Amino acid sequence: MLERGPELAAAAHAVDELVAGALAGGPARGGILVYRGDAGIGKTALLAEIHRTARDRCTVLTARGGETLTSVPFHITRQLLQPALDGFDADEVRHLFGDHFDLLAPALGIAPPSSDEPADPQGVLLGLARLLDRLADRLRDRPPVLLVDDVHWADAESLAWLDAFTRIRRDRRLPVLVVLAHRPFVREPQGPGPSATLAALADRAVLTLGLHALTSGATAALARDTLGGHADEPFCRELWTVTSGNPYETVELLAKARDRMLEPVAGSAGLLRDLGAGARGGGLVARLEELGSGPTRLAWATAVLGTDSTPELLAALTGLGAKQVAEDTERLRAARIVTSPPTTGRNGLALVPVPPLEFTHPLIATAVYGSVPPGVRTALHGRAAWALTEAGRGPAAVSRHLLEVHPDDDQDVVSRLRAAAVEHLAVGAPDAARRCLERALAEPPGPDSYARVLYELGCASLLTAPAATVRHLRSALDLPGLDDDLRIDATFRLVQALAHNNQLQEAARAAAVEYGRTPPGTGRRRLQAAHFIYEGFQASEADGPDRSRRLAELTAGFTGADNSERALITVRGFDAMMRGEPATEVVRLCDLALVDGTPARGLSWTDLAWGFEIPALTGIAYAFADRPDRPDRAEALFSEAVRAFEISGWSGAHLAFAHTLLGLVHRRRGNLPRAQHHLEEGLRLADRVGDGLPVHWDTACLLVDTLVARGRTAEARAVADRYAFGPPWPGAIVLPDGPSVLGRLLLAEGRVEEAVSTLEGAAEALTVRGRHHIVWAPWPLDLARALAPTDPDRGARIAREAYTHAERLGTHTALGEALRCLALFADPSESRRLLTRAVDHLAASPSRYEEARARLDLAHATGSATALAEAHALATTCGADLLTWDAVTARASTHPPE
Prior knowledge:
Layout: H1 5-24, E1 31-36, H2 43-54, E2 59-64, H3 75-85, H4 90-97, H5 101-108, H6 121-138, E3 144-149, H7 156-167, E4 177-182, H8 194-203, E5 207-210, H9 216-227, H10 233-243, H11 247-259, H12 272-277, H13 281-290, H14 293-305, H15 311-318, H16 322-334, E6 345-347, E7 350-352, H17 362-371, H18 374-390, H19 395-402, H20 411-426, H21 430-442, H22 450-460, H23 466-478, H24 484-500, H25 504-516, H26 522-536, H27 544-555, H28 563-579, H29 583-593, H30 613-623, H31 630-648, H32 653-669, H33 672-689, H34 694-709, H35 713-722, H36 738-748, H37 752-767, H38 779-787, H39 792-809, H40 812-822, H41 828-843, H42 848-862, H43 865-878, H44 882-892
Parallel strand pairs: 1-4, 1-5, 2-3, 3-4
Antiparallel strand pairs: 6-7
């Protein structure tokens, strides 16, 4: 190739590194290589040369984006992975997919969806990323090289897959080599979208190379190679001027000159400009029209069908017979408009199909598609949809053509677009489903189905675009056409979307309005549960005690007879825990909400009707119940959540929250390193989804608390700063109470005045709501300690009130912590007695870390070396840093003066 030495050398080096790393069995040495250049600059030819040089040592997988195929989800992914999987038998393919064949195979088009239920998009992307990892491991002797041409026309889902595969490797080294070729950005990407994803991929590239036009010397060499060594300098200079050194235009113009038997001398140079005009734009269209109506119609049909341009479908679109299609194809090939597919032949007894017709260059495809009169283009898309349907293709394959058809009040189009949306959702492509349903609304649907289409559109964008979901579902609820069950479900999803959009007050209000007009029964209780959940989840509310009273009265006679009762009992149990009601009552309610210790069928972690919040609330209440077996039950629930989410492919915020909940259990038990592990994993998973999610607040809060407990104050501050943990607080409560944990961090940093102000804010917000769980929200314990040096009377009063609430709660952890705080304000003899009682309570609790702190305080109070050694041993078991404990303890005044 002319003047592509550095670009080919970079590719050769990348391939060498990939192969060496794979054969050595050491760290991966692949990565991303990007070639960027204008249309016709030679990207395709460069990739072809890389393919040729790498195929002897590597498994080369190729794909190409298409201007009319950007709406086809996983189009690039399928081109890359399907051929690779074809090399394995069925059992090996199943092994590569692991437990996620049913989730991932539909996205790759190698198996139909196992159900019409929507697949989690994040789970599909991460599952496909893991599949490529396994494939690379399986092909270590011939490591994969992925060549993607025209990636600027890649579908969003495939770009997101490549992004997911490459983003998690901070050293930018991959087990495969990904080579991307694309045109320069017209403008810098603004906001999320395919262009931004492509830009992010390019930012991770080991090397990005821009392709430049040929020099005049290279152009002259190409001319002499094509037309003969006698091509003179004026002719070659004019050739370079006309084509601006663009390789595609240069090659095309030279081919035309050769066809016309143009002498490559100065006297012919003036003819090059007019001759070159036929290689692009209007000149190309004129040249096509000169071939006649048959080849023109065939070219139009090829532009519309794209990769589906088989002889049979081309005949259906053009109305031409098979013989005429073959003849017109040959005329287009001779004019260098389409490539020359091999003729049909036989491989043994099997008939080898003719591959789809392709244009010789994307520039030609763009020019031909743009030249089709708008009315004719729309009609061709309509005929393409019909032909593909007749050929047995599913609604999703047909939908890209229906999107281009003019609205015409055709209910069949509406039905097929709705069916396509179901298929798109089942493979994890909600954006494609949304496009289909938005187009269906434009048709428009009939009065009897309009509301249902709005409902389906709202469901399609439930968590990816909550604001749009709210708009669509509210419109659906304002129209006739939803039966009672669908109306309840639409309201429940509306409430979820409002909550996800941090509009908890509106969520609670929407549920209240709808359950007020719903007759008694399961549906009404489902809406009541949503109402009480999102009222209780608000960071502030007008009358929390009244809501708690109404909830208690509603559930007083419930026995857990059905799921609606169990759900409301769960909400009641969680509310009782937050209020600091007796733990025995909290445990009774949680036990009543389960069936044989596990969530009832229909109330599981992945149940779409009730949501994952119901089992989550049960487990959280158990975690703070402090009974010896209840943390175990909480851990069992949360471990099942991780398993259920992973099996279902829910690998985004759901799985992140499950790890957060496991972190909570281990924090409560005092296993601080394990708690930190789960919490950091929760943040890692949440970061892949986005920023500022509710799970970020909960996980960062727990991780800050855990790091402070370990004595790692600087790390805790780094987490707080990274996730903006602090005011302004979100509209929802944080797990555990955010201001209480922030106050604890400020005390550990020695910022006592700021800590007092923060803890007083927590006191004001929670006391008015009647929430007095001093382990969930330990503000009174830390505020009392902070006030001890400057205002001991007020500190002692707060400590006594905390002990009163601990007695009502009745858990060993709460009583031990409250006694330890009271000891701070007692005389030495009484302090030792209170600390002895605190140690006894905490030893009977699951809270090993709090027990270690109490033992340390008692050892300081008694001066016992034995007690001090025991405290240090227990602290080490918990994973706490003993070197910082005494310093932090002194700053927070957490033990009485000797």
